[in-house]
Amino acid sequence: MQLSTEQLVMVLNALPDPVFLLTEDAFYAGLFGHSDPGYYHDGHGLVGSSLYEVLPKDVADWIMEKVHLSLHQERLIKVEYPLSAQQVKGLEDKTGPDGMIWFEGHIQPFPNLIEGKKAVIWVARNITQRKLLQDELLHATQTDPLTGLYNRRKLMETLQEHFAEFQRYGHTLSLIMFDIDHFKQLNDTFGHLQGDAVLQSLSQLCNPLLRANDLLARFGGEEFVILLPSTHRQDAFITAERIRTSIEQQLAQVVGMSNPITISVGISELTSADTSMKALIDRADRALYQAKNSGRNRTVSL
User: Fold this and answer.
1) Which pairing describes strands 223-229 and 119-126: parallel, antiparallel, or unpaired?
2) Whose CA, among 17, 118, 162, 290, lies 20 to 30 Å from 223?
């Protein structure tokens, strides 16, 4: 049985995902499918418009880059991208999902010319729920569940990235390593729940004292590491002292304890003699133990 043209159009419009026909000169030549307003906004009014008339220029530029790549390579291109109805002129008041939507785009060269122009089929699938789940899983693999800080794995990955930048461009990097003085005694005396509260409150006290591009991570147990990009040891020392003093003055009061809670701190800076991140970490670790052996509640830089 052969379907009529009318039936073929009905089939296309019954597709669950939007199917765009985009020309090489950036026009919407056709749009089929996506009838469910729970997943998509009705974009049929875009047909006949230029992408540059309805989208921000940077978004339209990116879309056309993929269109031309698919046409040039004569193959399917797959992409993922975010887009909200508020970014598309004419869709602002249309019924559909709120906020940013993540799409998986499949871009395939169209076999015929459209009014003398090459074109592609662009199928856009809503993958927002999948993307949110992926982000949650990624967050879980990079985050310490008790403190909400980055974990050792994320720290080591970021350190390696910065070490590569240091080797290539010479970008300065310093490291602060600290742990809580007499933490085992605190746990034994007041219990592990109070120990957990100390770790959580310490994390909250530290964050406001750091820059947006600094990275604070729980290294293990009561030990923490702060990565400070574009920072020399002298400036890292100032930051470390600010953190040490704040913890001594505030942490015990925050968790309802009478005696001050203090930390010992070690600092190191990447040097041209370092062949790996291990050298930077080892120096900070040695500096930390010097601080402890010198009486605790102090900062040592190596």
Assistant:
1) unpaired
2) 162
